[in-house]
Each structure stands twice: as C-alpha cells, then as structure tokens.
Write a structure and sequence with these properties.
Elements lengths: L2 E5 L2 E4 L4 E8 L8 E6 L6 E6 L5 E3 L7 E6 L4 E6 L8 E7 L9 E2 L3 E6 L1
Parallel strand pairs: 2-11
Antiparallel strand pairs: 1-3, 3-8, 4-5, 4-9, 5-6, 7-8, 9-10, 9-11
C-alpha cells in the first residue's frame, strides 16, 4: 500500500511562490509516475503536472512556464515549485501516484491547501 503525504501549502500573495512536497512510502517509488492535481471550490479536480519514472514531465497549459515538477527517488519525494502564482491557482493540491509502470493514478494524498490572495 502506497501512502502519500503532502506539505508546503499556505497563503501567498499574487505573484508569489510556494513549493509543495509529497513524501511517498510503500512500494517502489522510482517505477511510478507521480502527479499533482488540484481542486478549487465547486470545480472538478484537474491535472496540474506529472513526472514519469524516466523523468519526463507534463504540465497543464494553465501552469506551463510557472510551475515545475521534480522528483528525488533516493528520498521518495516529488515536489512542485509554483511561481508567479495567481488567484485562480487557489485550490487543494493533491499528490498522486500510479502503480509501477502504469498510467492510472491509484494512490492519492489527503491534499494541501494553497490560497493566493489578490
């Protein structure tokens, strides 16, 4: 069983930065695709960024050029550096993981709140 614990959320002003981290336990971290998703109030959960086991990255158009995802396999962690934050980035951010060498996110963290004030 994989457990994911997010940290690093908080309140920041427009244009500011935050760095989210996700610590994973259980299973083989290096063989999983890791992703970040977010859900704003009264909206559906949406994809933000992902990093594959080979290090390839993918981003939602809304965050390209502002967010950067990275992973450190030796520490079983994945991070999301968020720069130039906007009020529309306000949401609960969730870390997610796939089973080994899979494309479906089966494991989810509890989420961390990010609030960007205008």
């Amino acid at each position: 069983q994989v457990q994911l614990v997010e940290s690093g959320g908080g309140l920041v002003q427009t244009g500011g930065s935050l760095r989210l981290s996700c610590a994973a336990s259980g299973g083989t971290f290096s063989s999983r695709t890791m992703g970040w998703f977010r859900q704003a109030p009264e909206k559906e959960r949406e994809f933000v960024a992902a990093i594959g086991w080979g290090g390839n990255t993918r981003y939602a158009d809304s965050v390209k050029g502002r967010f950067a995802i990275s992973r450190e396999n030796a520490k079983n962690t994945v991070s999301l550096q968020m720069n130039s934050l906007k009020p529309e980035d306000t949401a609960v951010y969730y870390c997610a993981a796939t089973p080994a060498y899979s494309a479906t996110y089966d494991f989810w963290g509890q989420g961390t709140q990010v609030t960007v004030s205008s």
